[in-house]
Design goal:
single chain; alpha+beta; two-stranded antiparallel ribbon; 18% strand
Length: 256
């Protein structure tokens, strides 16, 4: 049986209580509603207040904090990306008969949202919910190829490159050369940089503001992926279809 962490449960209970309340609540009202002892509640609320997940009004009563807006927006974007992509990546999987991934960038990592296996999928550590370095994956490089150069410079000033495999890109200068090529051709490649034996072709997904919100990829054994000349075009085409579903228009966009 899974044990429940009491302090974590109380945090969620406080957030739910404030969400459902029609007016801001005092410390006593929260304690009475949730049956939390005053000494425990004081420290709990102070921690949540300092972390900006809750805030106080002019009467010293508690409301939900602004930080939750960012979390909610991120969750909504992820849900929209998944829902808008699912039909396309399933169709892509049927056409190519290779493993299809959907992921989104989160600073220096790619977070995998879903994976559609084929009947000849190869073993991979990339699974929904896992994260991989953004510089070592085709998905990550597809996203990075759309980043502004100043943002890339600032971002990689603090990122240490690790050799995940002997073929992983080893420095920012080499990565920038790759990204320029990938942007020009409209898709990125991971040639066994993240897992030996795995070759990946990926394309970015943009939203209505022409900002990159994710990427899709096709992955499989190197020889088999390279032999299928249709894969790059199909990946780009379906990334564009998903981008259109996310609100993108053709104006000023020529990567697809």
């Amino acid at each position: 049986m899974v044990s429940i962490v009491k302090s974590a449960k109380r945090v969620f209970d406080v957030l739910e209580l404030l969400k459902d309340a029609s007016l801001p609540l005092s410390e006593k009202e929260i304690g009475d509603a949730l049956n939390i002892p005053p000494s425990s509640l004081f420290n709990l609320l102070k921690t949540m207040l300092d972390s900006k997940y809750i805030r106080k009004d002019y009467q010293n009563k508690y409301l939900l904090g602004h930080k939750l807006i960012n979390l909610g927006n991120r969750a909504r974007e992820d849900l929209d990306l998944y829902n808008e992509s699912l039909t396309y990546i399933k169709n892509l999987n049927d056409k190519i008969n290779e493993t299809i991934f959907l992921a989104y960038p989160q600073y220096n990592e790619m977070i995998y949202l879903t994976k559609i296996d084929s009947n000849r999928s190869i073993r991979t550590t990339a699974q929904p919910g896992t994260n991989k370095p953004i510089y070592s994956t085709g998905l990550g490089k597809a996203c990075l190829s759309m980043y502004d150069s100043n943002l890339l410079d600032e971002m990689f000033e603090h990122i240490k490159f690790e050799a995940i495999t002997p073929k992983t890109v080893g420095n920012y200068a080499d990565l920038k050369k790759q990204l320029a090529m990938f942007k020009a051709q409209g898709y990125a490649i991971d040639d066994e940089e993240n897992e030996m034996g795995l070759y990946c072709i990926a394309a970015p997904i943009l939203n209505d503001a022409q900002q990159v919100v994710g990427a899709i990829s096709c992955a499989g054994p190197k020889e088999r992926i390279i032999e299928n000349k249709n894969i790059p075009g199909l990946i780009k085409q379906n990334a564009y279809f998903i981008s259109k579903a996310m609100g993108l228009t053709r104006n000023g966009v020529n990567i697809y």
